[in-house]
Design a protein that fits this description.
Number of domains: 1
CATH class: Alpha Beta
Protein name: protein-tyrosine-phosphatase
CATH topology: Rossmann fold
Radius of gyration: 14 Å
Keywords: Hydrolase, Protein phosphatase
Distance between the termini: 12 Å
Bound molecules: 4-nitrophenyl phosphate
GO molecular function, one term: protein tyrosine phosphatase activity
Family: Belongs to the low molecular weight phosphotyrosine protein phosphatase family.
Structural class: alpha/beta
Pfam families: LMWPc (PF01451)
Oligomer: single chain
Strand order of the largest sheet: 2-1-3-4
Length: about 160
């Protein structure tokens, strides 16, 4: 059985599509499934934001084929690990958990870099292009740690 990881943000068009693309690029697809979802429904079926596609492309990743979808309580059964981007995603996802085991799957992604500090990945949607570079770099560093730990644990 492949190990499955879900990245979650609010819209599923800026941060979590990048997190999905970055982590997937660091893990063998034969052993790991990486997906993303948003807590909101505005962008269901939409491609990622052009600025996320652009910063990914600049870093040699193609995330343009991804399609937005909304997080659902079924995701607690389908995924082994759930990484959220910020406090608000954490609260929204945790509110849908039904068991302590489901709750324990949910982690703030930047706690991989800054343990226990609960730092948010800032939402770049209303900001400048520069915000997307910053988000990319944060997620790349976090996904480096996540992928190394997953490969150690599961292969
Ligand atoms: P994301 O950014 O959560 O990183 O995908 C957002 C994109 C769109 C909206 C909110 C956040 N929105 O409200 O449409």
């Amino acid at each position: 059985m492949p190990v499955s990881i879900l990245m979650v943000c609010l819209g599923n068009i800026c941060r979590s599509p990048l997190a999905e693309g970055i982590l997937a690029s660091k893990l063998p697809a034969s052993d790991f499934i990486v997906d993303s979802a948003g807590t909101g429904s505005w962008h269901v079926g939409h491609a990622p934001d052009k600025r996320s596609i652009g910063v990914a492309k600049k870093n040699k990743l193609d995330i343009s084929k991804q399609k937005g979808r909304q997080f659902s309580s079924r995701d607690f059964d389908s995924f082994d690990y759930i990484y959220v981007m910020d406090h608000s995603n954490y609260k929204d996802v945790l509110a849908m958990a039904k068991t302590p085991e489901q709750e324990s799957k949910v982690k703030m992604i930047l706690n991989e870099l800054f343990p226990d500090e609960n730092v948010d990945v800032p939402d770049p949607y209303y900001g400048t292009d520069n915000g997307f570079d910053m988000v990319y770099n944060m997620l790349d560093e976090a996904c480096d740690i996540i992928s190394k730990n997953l490969l150690k644990k599961h292969t």
